Amino acid sequence: MSRLSKAEHPDADLNFLDSPPFPEDVSTAPLLRISLSKLVQGDQGEIDKLWKACRELGFFYLDLREVGRADSATGGVESNKLENIRDFDADIDGERLLQDAKDLFEIGKEIFDLPVEEKIKYDLKDQGSYFGYKGYGQGIINAKGTKDRNEFYNVSKDDILGLSEPLPAPELLEPHRELLKSFMQHSHALVNLLLSLLNRQLGLPCDKLPSLHRLASISGDQVRWVNAPPQPTDDQRTALGQHTDFGSVTILFNRLGGLQVLPPNSDEWSYVKPLRGHAVINLGDAMVKLTAGILRSNIHRVVNPPGQQASHTRMSLVYFARPADDVILKALHGSNLIDENRRQNPETLGEEEITSKEWILRRALGRRQGGDWSKAGGTESVRLET
């Protein structure tokens, strides 16, 4: 993939050229744009932007362009600036991640083009698993049991990296395991960088947050393809119901609009406009629980794309990073910030103690047809539809 200079990437030219234009007359969310290149260089101003985004909205854009292979031992950050970045599992390579995502979009099309009777062979819900296939309308978006309007396919990180027994999967995925491995490793290196930076801002002991998210740990980390066909113009509904993410860090690639966030203290849903060369990053519930609410996991949903994009199928590619399965989701010790937040919010002391695996299973399966919706809520369930 060619490596273009920022001069060749003017801010006004961030649209996807092979997609209908995103409309200019819809409300868009105030996501900060953060440069991965500057984070890797240890730019304190950019790190401050990351901290602000993770505390106030929990969503931000990450510009992946111009970041080649950063040194795997230090993440490309000078050791005297960020000495707790170490033991990376892959190079931080934004351009490689963009190329892998582009290739995986093509693989996703092949998966969803399979006959329904073939795809449902890989629905593993009855085995108590959230990996594999979920069919169109097989999820619910509220307590009334309203069906969703998307299908998705989840690939386990542990399966691809050989940490667990292989799961049943369509034959067409077999030749692409190395591509999936590359995408997972580079996504996780990015997650490790973000966690290391947040670890420092929180004043936690060296490597605490990254140590709960080792690539080689058994966890719920996964790649997901999401496919949402155009909806009838006279019957457009929410494709994926409002929710907070289950885990720690989500890396999202998409080309069409439809993702919406509900900003704090607002009743107005705002679109997240996809930007070429960028990923949308957001934090999940685990980061709220581990920091006693200092960091934010914001409510979001997916609706039909706006404007001219409405008549096109919306596909997304996601990497979900979660804590290791056996990590207890409770406020961490060793940070003055977290200790003070715990003192100011004593209700956090009485929260249930639940493992990462139990939390994810409870939430994920609660949103499937026949699941227990009462267990599907996240850290902001008070604002979720009932």
Average pLDDT metric: 87
Helix content: 25-40%
Broad CATH class: Mainly Beta
Q: What's the shape?
A: globular
Count of separate structural domains: 1
Strand neighbour order, sheet with most strands = 1-2-10-7-12-5-4-3
Low-confidence stretches: 1-10, 71-89, 382-386
Strand content: 5-15%
Q: N-to-C SSE series? A: EHHEHHEEHHHEEEEEEHEEHH
Please report the distance between the alpha carbons of the first and last residues. Answer: 46 Å
Family: Belongs to the iron/ascorbate-dependent oxidoreductase family.
Domain Fe2OG dioxygenase: 219-323
Keywords: Iron, Metal-binding, Oxidoreductase
Protein name: Clavaminate synthase-like protein
What does this entry look like structurally?
This protein is of the alpha+beta class and 386 residues long. It has one domain (13-383): Sandwich (Jelly Rolls). The chain contains ten helices and twelve strands. An eight-stranded mixed sheet has the order 1-2-10-7-12-5-4-3. A four-stranded antiparallel sheet has the order 6-11-8-9, with no helix packed on it. α3 (94-112) crosses α6. The protein is globular and about 55 Å long. Mean pLDDT is 87; it is low at 1-10, 71-89 and 382-386. Keywords: Iron, Metal-binding, Oxidoreductase. Pfam families: 2OG-FeII_Oxy (PF03171), DIOX_N (PF14226). GO terms for molecular function: metal ion binding; oxidoreductase activity.
